[in-house]
Amino acid sequence: MTAANASPVQANAQQRYEVHRADLPLSCPLPSMGLWNSHPRVYLPIEADGGESDCPYCGAHFVLVD
Known about the structure:
Layout: E1 16-19, E2 26-28, E3 42-44, E4 52-54, E5 61-64
Domain Zinc finger CHCC-type: 38-62
Keywords: Lyase, Metal-binding, Zinc, Zinc-finger
GO molecular function: lyase activity; zinc ion binding
């Protein structure tokens, strides 16, 4: 199950998220998260950063898994 198809989750509820290529382009908060209680959506260049990227707003760490 990809992040886009997962059940809605609270925004910024955890500090590490595993994402898949189907979830690209990667943004924080993820599309499955509510924006009303979070920061503005920002797109993260996870492929250019060696498969890992951190959100500059909330510090969430994203890891690209295959």
